[in-house]
Amino acid sequence: MAHLWSGRFDEEPDASVFSYGVSLSFDRLLFEDDVTGSLAWAEALARAGVLSEADAAAIAGGLGDILDAGRRDPAFVDGPDEDIHAFVERQLVERIGEAGKRLHTGRSRNEQVSLDLRLYLKRRIPLMVDRLTRLVAALASRAGACGTATMPSYTHLRRAQPILAAHFFLAHAAAFRRDAGRFERAIDEADEMPLGSGAIAGTTYAVDTAFLAGRLGFSRTVLNSLDASSDRDFVAGFLYACSLTMVHLSRLAEDLIIFTSEEFGFFELPDRFATGSSLMPQKKNPDPLELARGKSGRVLGRLAGWLVTMKGLPGGYNRDLQEDKEAVFETEATLSSSLDACAAVAAGLTLNAPRAEAAASGMLLATDVADYLVAKGVAFRDAHAIVGAIVRKLVAEGRDFASLSLEEWRAFSDRIGPDVGEAISAKASVAAKRTPQSTNPDAVRAALDELAGWVGARRR
Ligand code: ARG
User: Fold this and answer.
1) What is the pLDDT of residues 35-89, one digit of tens each?
2) The model's pTM
3) pLDDT tens digits for 401-456?
4) What CA dihedral angle connects 206, 210, 216 and 219, to 10 degrees?
5) Probe ligand 1: pick from 20, 113, 325, max atoms within 8 Å of CB?
6) Relative to the CA of 82, which ligand 1 atom is closest?
7) Please, are residues 234 and 287 in contact by the beta-carbon 8 Å criterion?
8) Which positions are catalytic?
9) Closest ligand 1 atom to the C-alpha of 317?
């Protein structure tokens, strides 16, 4: 078979080594983008007077037919070709002959592959943002369903202070909102039109790059042809956005695995999202959450792998860059399915309010006792020491604050009065918080409203 570059060589490529470099099996996902780019390129060549109107029309017709064929039957995009660019060109020449051979004038696969991947990411990343939005909406609905029920918060995985259970869901939603912003910035990074770069030095034909950018939906053109032929920062940016989202999914999964366990039991996992054991009849395992946590390894690995691939490259296009596509496609598929699974699981969680509230009382009210003493005029550092001594006694006796008589309280500080009872509870603790980002019930309600606006603005 003749290749795009066969004229240069005396012998046919070695079949097994050639197949080592073939990318059509995966870059076929760029089929539509490749055709889109070629349609615009043919127009630009015609506008520059490089292609006759007749040739340009023949090319547009041929490319349109090829696009239809690929849309009708995805299996059409297959063959002995080295990559998707070679596939489309062969199809075109088979259909329209001579005119098809003029399409690649002044153009290189080096800029074509960059263009295709940029177009791909620009149309695919919004779908990822949609998935993130659905997950955030699921978390918002769980937050809303929790009402004013409290649960413990943890630092060092030790009970810290009471929070509203809604606050827990809103915390994870906040991280995923940052991810959505990161994806929006990844789109912006991909939004540079590389055509006109040629193989490396630019192109000899006066193609109107501003026209091409507008025609292809780009807001700007690359700055430098040499840089453009090897720049895959936009790939790294996408993989980083995916990696951090996967980190957040993994942390959500970890929290939910812990909080749905028998030991914690704050939330119940619906049976339909759990898996049993082949041996132990009692088991109800949170497998989808474990898989999301586990799959974060491959996404983070793809980012690290891609950075390693990029770091040693000399200037200009190098074939190493072909590795970008499997990194993007595998990462995209893994993150997409993980987001969908986690959104479904999150939407189905129910709160076990008695369990969560019971766990939110006891020693984790110690800070509130210290704040009570501060309100009575005790310096915070002294209050901390006084409460530390109370805690030591209670722990030794297996009791909690609620069991202390006023006399016992006052043995530690005569500033303590009969109002201490109502001041020291989980409800009082959350109500006492005063900042907008806090777990104060009014603040949480406002945060839920604000989040509903965020989701509403992105839902489509
Ligand atoms: N399949 C190649 C890639 O993915 C396309 C560019 C090929 N360019 C080249 N000079 N061999 O990077």
Assistant:
1) 999 999 999 999 999 999 999 999 999 999 999 999 999 999 999 999 999 999 9
2) 0.96
3) 999 999 999 999 999 999 999 999 999 999 999 999 999 999 999 999 999 999 99
4) 150
5) 113
6) 1
7) no
8) 156, 277
9) 10
